[in-house]
Amino acid sequence: MVAHAEAHLDHHGDHPPEPHFSSRISPSILGMYLFIGSEIMLFGSFFTAYFFVRVVNGDTWPSLLSSVPKAFPLHLPVYLAFINTLILVTSSFTMHWALTSVKKGNAFGLRAGLLLTFLMGLTFLITQITEYLRIGFNTSQGAFPTIFFCLTGLHGCHVFVGLTILLFMTIRAFRGHFDPEHHHGVEIGGIYWHFVDVMWILVFLTVYVI
Length: 210
Description:
Blueprint: H1 2-12, H2 27-56, H3 78-103, H4 107-134, H5 143-174, H6 184-209
């Protein structure tokens, strides 16, 4: 057995043998998909609370402020949220452009796509924070404000995480760390960013439109 082990080590040199995957998806991408699955369950719990308040309890939406002597209806900045949605959806296309470019060896397209994606994501987050400062209600004023801030705030946290990933991706792109054979960092970050965009569309339709 010792001789067999020594022969095995000599055959592979100083490095362990290459791993064999039973799936066509690399472990890193599969791990990102599994992570996104857990995040979908997290968002699902908040959407469940939303539908419980709105459908089961039958509350009006937007609701009434119950903490003031004379209740008045809440008004959401639907137009501003719609513009923000267009910005975030556009960032998905620039992210796709960056990934397509790196696969073709186009360094300019990679860098431009990542930079544009980061700037649009940052614009979305700043606009969302500005909306919070001017919205005119808070979580102490009923179930609706609580659900509103929980859903949009949870998504805002994911946007912040996505921007952090995009920042490192952009820095690495400008340093020439990605090429057509080595671009998993761009692909994995792109999957997460597309997830963030899709979740915002659901939040926008649920909270602002329906």
